Amino acid sequence: MAASQRKLWLDWQRGLAVLFMVEVHVLDAWLSPAARHGGPYAALLMLGGFAAPGFLYMAGLSQALADASQERKGVAPADRRRGALRRAVWLLGVAYGFRLAEYLLGGAWRRPDGWQDLLKVDILNVIAVGLALSAVAVGRPRRLGALLAGAAALGIVLATPPIADVLRHYDLPRAGQAADAAARVAPNRAVDVGLAYLYASWPRANFSLFNWVAFLLAGAAVAPLAAGPRRPLRWLGLGAALFALGWAVDRGPDLYAYQSFWRTSPAWFAMRLGICAGFTGLLQLVPDRAERPLAWLSTLGRQSLVGYIASVELTYGVLMDGLAVRLGATPLRKALSFGATVSGMVAMVALTWAISVAWERLQAWRKGRPRATPAAAA
To answer: Is the pLDDT of residue 365 over 60?
Structure first.
């Protein structure tokens, strides 16, 4: 797609999600436990919490916009649905391939139960399954597709608290927490992975389908608003309405017997989705001519998958700690002061951007490389 036709605000919003992701990964991986307090720490932790909802929301929005683009090109609805499913399967393969690389490079294979890391559910798994679910709306008339995606998102959000109430008894205690033997049930290996997909039970999963996948479906539901010219005021109004709805519901009586605000609450979901929509409105207010100074952010947005892999591996992996030891420095893992961690965030953003640029140039070189014809090869 030419730069003039490209929705630049889409790249910028993905780029913001990458920035939030790098920030929270560095904060979690490198900051010393003694420094985890105070307003600046809480603010950075809250800001980083919008990375995952942003990625999911943008994935659903982008899939719906891509489907509309293929419709304009005359691609048959069935072919569009098959293509969406293929992309979902491909991304799920990437998720498990990345998990395998982490298993081998991180040395988890040395631990007795280290192989279980291969089955851990993370954000890429949820995005992949969400893209497969939202493929039901692909190839449909625009309003019908949005209605199907929106209904699925609402159903998942409302069903999350009762499902979590049942599955939380299979949750495993975090390090340092005592397990209530009477309240917890040890699942067998056959259902363990399925439970991890349904409910984010640490250490089996960092994310789960309930209610995280609803962000992706909601992004697909609001995609018609992104078609055509920019409508920043509508997006800002939608974001404000969703946030106000979530705020009002949270102030009202409890709707469920079990409800965890930060994990399962429909109110917190509505507020986070409202903030995502608000970011869309704010970025649509930025004129396209700002692309020149924001080109670095666009690059991070276009290569968000590369940024995710680089961010996780360089912050949580053994490479950076090994390099620090070789240089005679202290290992980074949970050892830095708050100021040093912020400096590490800046450095990691720069490194992630450099890797994204290198990957983009490699892809451009491969596309432009002349291929030998059969005659020439003979």
So the answer is: yes
